[in-house]
Design brief:
Blueprint (H helix, E strand, L loop, with lengths): L1 E11 L2 H27 L9 H14 L1 H4 L3 H19 L16 E4 L6 E4 L4 E6 L3 E6 L9 E10 L2 E11 L11 E5 L5 E3 L4 E2 L4 H4 L1 H12 L6 H35 L2 E5 L3 H4 L14 H14 L1 H14 L3 E5 L24 E3 L6 E3 H14 L5 E2 L4
Parallel strand pairs: 8-11, 11-12
Antiparallel strand pairs: 1-5, 1-7, 2-6, 3-4, 4-5, 6-7, 8-9, 9-10, 12-15, 13-14
Helix pairs in contact: 1-4, 2-4, 6-7, 7-10
């Protein structure tokens, strides 16, 4: 089978290369928004816009506009392909309607031609990447990793003023044999990030909560800056850096624990949690205002700080690489069901930490009891909702 993986590198471009990459990302954003406007405003019954038709119009536009002609053609075409994919996902019900890209929020572009792309290691923790019209760009990597296969494409992106290159590679590998490791059920929460059915527990990272004071300070400083000023741009970058540190620490936390679980278990059963519904605002409307809005806001922040969906995605592809599988089951009543007798009673869950069955008197840790119920649902032929998120 063909396995595709991406390796992320931090780029250290020269000032001229930074200027060029900024212009290329701006040109891609312009082409994306222009094509989106064309599809929105000029659509008529019988008139259909496709990736091929808009590529032909892009060729005509580049012949008339000098600064578009200065940008490489492949990243501009990839912007149109991204728009086509966004529309297909929307029509299939897998995403929202495409929206215009904003400057500073989607500064990225992609080089799809592997012939013109190269990655070389020049030292113990240094290297360089060759990109069309940009030449060799310096790379520093503390733990240099060999690329897992041949290069397919390279995506350049900017986050908090820093440039990164995601090098996607593919290789032909043998189909993994089914894993014989033991199964496990996982109950995910806030007080305990993950409680395993075999008794293991993972404490939450709460990286967003730890950085909340620094983030508030940076955002308050930003609110006092004048629109369009140089100080405001610096303040925006300061906020972005705090958020990037939180995201990086959370991603590292999820990678470490998902890898440990995938290496020690062959089947992992988790709840199919709808994070978007669980973290919806309780503000309500002016006609019907919500209750406990402040408390629900804090709960939503804690839910989003855990990264449950990202954790499930990581578990899915890491288990699939090792011959394991990820099963998602309905989450209803897992915390109110007794793992000993199977009776469902809301009175059995007396508090957050302990479970005491109202029918048989079985006592257990509430999260561990729920994890056992989740594991049993994975063995049922009626209830599992299985899916590999790769």
């Amino acid at each position: 089978m063909i396995r595709r993986k991406a390796t992320l590198f931090r780029l250290y471009p020269t000032p001229d290369q930074v200027s060029q990459m900024t212009q290329i990302s701006g040109a891609c954003r312009f082409v994306y928004n222009l094509a989106l406007e064309q599809r929105r405003e000029w659509y008529r019954p019988g008139r259909r816009f496709t990736f091929a038709s808009q590529c032909r119009e892009l060729t005509q536009l580049r012949a008339e506009v000098d600064w578009l002609r200065a940008a490489p053609i492949h990243p501009l075409q990839q912007a149109l392909r991204d728009l086509e994919r966004a529309y297909r996902n929307w029509w299939a019900g897998h995403g929202r309607a495409p929206r215009p890209r904003k400057k500073g929020a989607a500064d990225s572009f992609r080089f799809p031609d592997p012939v013109s792309l190269k990655v070389e290691r020049t030292g113990q923790s240094s290297g360089r990447i060759k990109l069309p019209k940009l030449g060799w760009v310096k790379v520093r990597e503390r733990n240099w990793r060999t690329l897992p296969g041949s290069i397919c494409n390279i995506t350049i992106s900017r986050r908090a003023g820093q440039w990164f290159a995601a090098v996607q590679c593919e290789q032909d590998v043998a189909e993994p044999a089914p894993s014989a490791l033991p199964p496990v059920g996982i109950d995910m929460g806030i007080a305990v990030f993950a409680a395993l059915s075999d008794g293991g527990r993972i404490a939450p990272g709460n990286y967003g909560k730890k950085a909340l004071r620094a983030l508030r300070t940076a955002q308050r400083s930003l609110s006092r800056k004048r629109q369009g000023s140089s100080n405001r741009r610096k303040a925006v970058r300061r906020v972005a850096r705090v958020q990037q540190r939180v995201a990086t620490a959370r991603k590292d936390f999820l990678h470490k624990h998902s890898t440990a679980i995938a290496k020690s278990h062959g089947t992992v059963v988790v709840e199919a949690l709808s994070v978007r519904s669980m973290s919806a605002s309780a503000a309500g409307t002016s006609a019907a205002p919500g209750r406990n809005v402040r408390q629900k806001s804090g709960l939503n922040r804690a839910i989003l700080d855990q990264g449950w969906r990202t954790f499930r995605i990581m578990l899915g592809y890491k288990l699939a690489e090792r011959g394991g599988r990820l099963i998602e089951v309905p989450a209803a009543y897992t915390s109110q069901t007794c793992a000993a007798c199977g009776v469902i009673d809301v009175a059995s869950r007396r508090d957050q930490a302990y479970f005491v069955c109202a029918a048989c008197g079985h006592q257990a840790d509430a999260d561990a009891n729920a994890a056992i119920n989740i594991l049993r649902r994975g063995d049922s032929a009626l209830k599992p909702v299985e899916g590999h998120r790769i």
